[in-house]
Amino acid sequence: MSAGGSGVFSAKGNFGELTHVDILTWRKRRLFSADSNHVATIQVEKSGMPDARATLQKKDGKWQFPEKASDKSFRFDAERASEWAQRVTNLTASGFVEDDAAKKAAQLQLQKPLCQLRITNENGDKSEVIVAENTEKAKGLAQVVGSDTIYELNQFDLKDLVSPPDAFRDMSLLGVDDSQVHKLSIHTPKGDAALEKKGEKWVIVTPAKLPEGFVFDESLVSTELRRLKGLRAQELGKDKQGLGNAKSALWVELTDQAGKKERVTFSAPDGDKTFVKGAIDDHIYVAPAYERRRLEVGIELFQKHAGSQFGGSQNMNSLPPALRKQIEEAIRKQRAGG
User: What is the Cα–Cα distance from 235 to 233, expressed in whole angstroms?
Assistant: First the structure.
């Protein structure tokens, strides 16, 4: 029937499809009802872990971490803290625990929580969520205090919730302004490479004899400097963790126009990770092993390659060496076939 009239219209369709709706999709899945723009504090209290309590406070629209304000060994990253706070405020369940037997088991697990999350709004309203691990399903469990509903959480959400205070830690390894760098040196167990900016041009200083067939791509120097400036560790290394045998270490050193030098040193790869020491503090961090492996090629990092003709500004040298070789080989075969 048309609005305001008596005409009746029809349309073909499957009535069953229109009426079959999963009612669970209508249920509220967000655990906190707070507006992220009006949250004043977020506190996570972990059970039986070091740094058991971490509290973020918002002041003048910016997140602060007062508990570590006097700890000079802790570099606070307000941007990372803001991203974490946004994820917590918008925490959404992946499902619900419905079965009676499953509920009883979940309630027992919630009595031994991994952590408790507390959010306070600017108006003073408070809400609290208890988080535990569902060992049977490799999922998380959550319950809002004052509610009987038990939620399921994805495993990656679970890890994220118990990550503070490292979730707020600045993991950058170099502080130099990459636009002011005029010398780049790479030391590998197989040899050294050094480039220097003379005027507006980058030139190769070391090695004196370049590999056969080597063609220098100057644009890759700026690309590499930006990548190094953006290099971040994944996590803090264990106490007294060293870099291992000095002979197997790899380091990159950047020198700015004022002569200030900053160095980042990588240990030999340990599986899919490497230990690394940056120039900003004395901590040993953990980084992906491919960050070291891609630097092991030394001066060949700046080799003009076939891939540069595909995609223009793409820098295949930023890829792990094994993957880069596979792509270049595929390109050569494609050309040969053409």
Answer: 6
Q: Is 165 helix (H, G, I), strand (E, B) or coil?
A: coil
The SS3 of residue 144 is strand
What DSSP designation does 164 have? Answer: T
Written as six digits, the tokens of 138 are 């490799």
Q: How confident is the model at residue 101 (pLDDT cuts 50, 70, 90)?
A: very high
CA distance 109 to 135: 9
pLDDT of residue 306: 67
Contacts of 277 (CB under 8 A, 6+ apart): 243, 264, 265, 283, 284, 285
Give pTM, 2 decimals.
0.76
Instruction: Pick the range with the lowest mean pLDDT from 6-10, 14-18, 79-83, 120-124.
Output: 14-18
Burial of 206 (0-12, 13-18, 19+ CB in 10 A): middle
- Rounded to an integer, what distance in angstroms lies between the CA atom of residue 107 and that of residue 149? 10
The alpha helices in the chain, defined as continuous H runs, are 15-19, 78-89, 100-110, 155-161, 219-229, 289-293, 321-337
Cis-peptide into 207, omega within 30 deg: yes
The one-character DSSP state at 135 is T
Picking from 248, 255, 247, the residue whose alpha carbon sits closest to that of residue 205 is 255
Closest Cα to residue 42, out of 117, 93, 114?
117
Tokens of 205: 């200083």
Using a 10 angstrom Cβ sphere, with 0-12 exposed, 13-18 middle and 19 or more buried, the burial of residue 72 is exposed
d(CA 237, CA 252): 20
pLDDT digits (tens, 9 = 90+) for 208-255: 999 999 999 999 999 999 999 999 999 999 766 678 888 899 999 999
Longest dimension (CA), the chain: 90
The pLDDT value given to residue 311:
42
Helix (H, G, I), strand (E, B) or coil at 69: coil
Distance CA 132, CA 109 (A): 6
- What is the arithmetic mean of pLDDT over 290-302? 96
Residue with tokens 């606070």: 76
Cβ pair 181, 194 in contact under 8 A: no
